Structures are given as C-alpha cells and as structure tokens.
Amino acid sequence: MASRTEKKEIVIVGGGIIGCTSAYFLTRHPAYDPSKHKITLLEASKIAGGASGKAGGLLALWAYPTNIVPLSYRLHAELAKEHGGEARWGYRRIHCGQLSAKGRTLQSVGATNGKPVKGESVSLNKRDQKALGKVIAAGLPKDLNWFAPESIQSYYQMGDPDTTAQVHPYHFTTSMAELAQEKGVNIVLGAVSNIDTANGKGVKSVTYEDKATKETHIIPATDVIVSAGPWTQRVYPPAPISAMRAHSVTITPSKPISAYAIFTEISLPPDFGRKDTFLKAKRPHGKTVTPEIYARPNNEAYACGEGDHLVPLPKTTDDVETDMARCQDIIDYVSSISDELRDGEVTVRQACYLPSVQAASAGPLIGHTGVKGLLLATGHTCWGIQNGPGTGKLISEFVFDGEAQSASIGSLDPRKVL
Fold it and tell me: How far apart are CA 380 and CA 307, in angstroms?
C-alpha cells in the first residue's frame, strides 16, 4: 500500500475526460491533502479539445468492459446528483434502440446547412392511419415519432432509462476540470515532450512546452498519469495505442425530438447521393450505412458516422482536419429517414480521434506500467465518457492506496501488454 502521508507531486498528462476525472477523484480521495499533494494537469491544446468534447456522450450499463462499467455508470448518477449535472452537463436517463430503415432518395437538400431548398421538398411524414400502422408493425415506440414511417423496417430495444443515460461530453469534461480546480488542481496548457523515469527506476520529472510562451519547463513528479487518449504513444512510446478518426455533426431539428439514442442500419437506394459543394460530384455510397443518432436536451441531435484512418494523427487537437464531405454524408444519411433532421439546421461539423489498444486484450489500460510512479489510463475507444468516472476513481486509488479498490480490473493491467 502506498503511503498516504508522504508528499506527492502528481502530474496528469491529458485534459480529456480521463485526465479530468482522474484530477477530480484524486482531490476527492480521503487521503488527499492539498498541503502535501500537488496536482498538475498538463493539456497540449485545450480541455476537452478532442473526442471528450466531440463524442456522443452515451452512458450504458451494457457497455464494455464489464469490470468497470457498473462502477462508472453509478458514479455518473452520483456526480449528477451532487453537482447538478442535469442542468450543468445535460445528464438524463434515456431509451436506446436499433432501427433498421430504408433510406429515401435525396432530391432537393441544400449543401450548406442540410435544409431543403425552399418550395421543392414536402414532408412525407403525414402520420395518417396507414403510416401509424407501419410504425406499430415495426415495433417502434409511440414517442419515437421523428422517423419517416415509410422508411421504418424494424426496431429493437437495446436499453431503457434504467440502463441507459447520456451527458453532453464537452460540458461534463469541462465541469470535471473546473471542480478539480476548485480543490487545488493546477491546469497548465502545454505539450509534454519527455517523462524522465531515471532509466526505468521511477518517475522524476515531466518536461513540457508552454502553449502560450513556447518556453520549456521541467516540473518534478512522484506520480505521472498518462491519459492522453490517442496521443498516448507520443508521450509514452511503449504504450500500444492507435488512433482512428471519427466525424460527427449536430443538428437543431425542425421539431422537438424524444429522448432516444438510436443505432441505425440504413439501406440506401441505388441512386442515393447528390452533387454537393464539397466534392462537386455525386459521391459513392455503400449499400448499407450505420450512423448513430442521439437526441440531446434543448432540441439538439448528435449524429456520427463510421471511422477512418485516412489522415494520420496530428500534433494536437487544434490540428485535427475535418472532412466536410464525410460530415455531409452523415447529414444525408440521417436526412434520408427523418424529416425532422432533414428540415433542421446543421450547427456543427467536426472530427476527432478515438484511442484503442493494439493488443490481444481490447482494453482500456488502467494502472501501473512497471515503472515506479508511472500509470496509464487510456485506450477507452468510444466508451471514454461512459467509463471516465470509474477510471478516475480507480486512478485515485492507485495513487493513494497502491492498488484498485472499487473494481477488479486485473484484465486491464497495462503490464500485460507493455
């Protein structure tokens, strides 16, 4: 067991959800004493600048890995209750389902904002008795009324408000950072260039370049948590972490939509596609596409598409390249099955990178590395927001107790793959 009374210089590398929840729970650990324990969080660009600010924010008891999901899901509810998460970061319980649908051909959808050209598009969602009959036959819940009846083929419930919830990832991550700051965490914008481990004997210091001044600084460290997401390998080369780019959009629907997270499987017609301002030509599409759509509070819908490896991981989140054509694909796909989304206003087009573990174990990696004082907390793929609180709680236990107390996570031990 680690000594709870010794002085500590704790450095967290990465200001995404894992770094921010680690900072939060370190300051809530019973052993934390700000007079003895200094915590510095180093972030290369900005808090929640990557996937932690651009993800969907889905929370689920049916997520993975199963050894930390229940802990983290419970902590989400507790955090929301303690800090007013419903108002502060959009925490709420929701329904979730799998929807199979036939996409409609897009004829007159504007390329700039996803809206139909005035006077040339008429909503097909009449909701007459025949349409309602199709909805009922497909098993669609009555309040899931923002999909075109003629498109719906089948619906399968994946989760309900007892097992599924959501947060707005950017607001949740930045709130965790702010709450950690209130308890003494020092947040510094600077890119880490070196972690001195005294040739593997134990961490001694962290070197970083200040974002504003470009000056190099070295800060002493007794404990270093590397939680840099897809950038982890840049900071700690032995870590088997790769990166995948993902695109997403947000839309203000033309009408309020009910609280559902929907995993779609959309069969596109052979002539699907149109000329757009991004490629100046009709884009090729697969026969079946699978965008995810999450209804958020305040009449916002989030939609994301499949990942790609076309553009290598850039230096920081500030340098991430957004492919506008891929964003338009997402808009077109969801518009093909929903008039409310088709007729809505596209408010954000964005991209980010997700981290995954390149090893036999799917990850994430949470815990000791084999170097004294050096911990990893990374490789959470698309479940970083869901598993952020659980990971942060466990990291605080590794630092102050020497081992995980709240969950059995031997399978996530970084030493198995390093």
Answer: 15
SS3 call for 302: strand
Please return the burial class of 7, using the count of CB atoms within 10 Å of its CB with bins 0-12, 13-18 and 19+: exposed
Of 234, 268, 266, 282, which is closest to residue 154 (Cα–Cα)?
266
Are the C-beta atoms of residues 395 and 22 closer than 8 Å to each other?
yes
348 has which bridge partners? Answer: 250
Task: Please tell me the distance from the alpha carbon of residue 69 to that of residue 387, in angstroms, as a whole number.
Answer: 6
- 90, amino acid identity: G
Q: Which two tokens stand for residue 51?
A: 């996937």
Residue 124 banded pLDDT, cuts 50, 70, 90 = very low
Spatial CA neighbour of 160 closest among 100, 93, 222, 105:
93
Nearest 5°: the CA angle 351, 357, 358 is 110
For 210-268, how does the pLDDT look when each residue is reduced to its tens digit (9 = 90+)?
999 999 999 999 999 999 999 999 999 999 999 999 999 999 999 999 999 999 999 99
- Following DSSP, what letter does each residue of 177-211 receive, concatenated? HHHHHHTTPEEEEEEEEEEE-TTTT---EEEEEET
CB 5 within 8 A of CB 151: no
Give the DSSP H/E element, type plus range, for residue 102.
strand 95-102
23 contacts: CB under 8 Å, gap ≥ 6: 12, 39, 41, 176, 177, 180, 185, 392
Read off φ and ψ for residue 133, nearest 5 degrees: -60, -40
Strand ranges for 290-378 from DSSP E: 292-296, 300-304, 345-357, 365-368, 374-378
Instruction: Pick the closest to residue 291 from 315, 326, 319, 259 (CA basis).
Output: 326
Alpha carbons 168 and 187: distance in angstroms, whole number: 22
- 46-70 confidence digits (pLDDT tens): 999 999 999 999 999 999 999 999 9
Any residues with CB less than 8 A from the CB of 37 and at least 6 apart, and which? 7, 8, 10, 26
Cα 299 to Cα 335: distance, rounded to the nearest angstrom = 16
Per the rule left: phi > 0, alpha: psi between -120 and 50, beta: everything else, 114 is: left
Could you tell me the two tokens for 173?
Answer: 């991550």
> Tokens in use for 66?
């199963």
Q: Is 250 helix (H, G, I), strand (E, B) or coil?
A: strand
Triad 333, 338, 344: Cα angle to 5°? 90
